[in-house]
């Protein structure tokens, strides 16, 4: 493989295989092998849950504070209000995630349509 092969038809597929699929699947295989042996209340699983929750919170914060695309056209107050309403719906309507997502999306869409 040389620099000239970067324009060949197969290069993007090889890149996806090496840079995308292989690194993530290694961790998936390790998770499957170890996952059956880890107790649900173990410290390792508590740390994994905490990191996963922090990553989701970071993505949500980035979408609210630094949006891109058509979401960037909305005001920050609309985005924060929709997220707050979704969280309130989660708390008051039985702690169901799908209900909170639908409420937040409905408020965000209505706010975009009315502005």
Automatic annotation (TrEMBL):
Transmembrane intervals: 12-34, 46-64, 76-93, 98-114
Keywords: Membrane, Transmembrane, Transmembrane helix
Domain of life where this protein originates: Bacteria
InterPro entries in the cross-refs: Brnchd-chn_aa_trnsp_AzlD (IPR008407)
Protein name, UniProt field: Branched-chain amino acid transport
Annotated organism of origin: Phyllobacterium sophorae
């Amino acid at each position: 493989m040389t620099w000239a092969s970067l324009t060949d038809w197969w290069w993007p597929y090889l890149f996806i295989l090496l840079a995308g699929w292989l690194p993530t699947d290694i961790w998936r295989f390790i998770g499957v092998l170890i996952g059956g042996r880890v107790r649900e209340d173990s410290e390792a699983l508590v740390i994994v849950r905490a990191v996963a929750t922090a990553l989701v919170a970071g993505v949500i914060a980035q979408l609210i504070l630094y949006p891109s695309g058509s979401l960037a056209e909305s005001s920050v107050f609309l985005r924060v209000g929709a997220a707050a309403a979704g969280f309130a719906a989660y708390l008051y309507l039985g702690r169901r995630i799908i209900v909170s997502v639908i409420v937040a999306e409905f408020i965000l869409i209505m706010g975009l349509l009315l502005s």
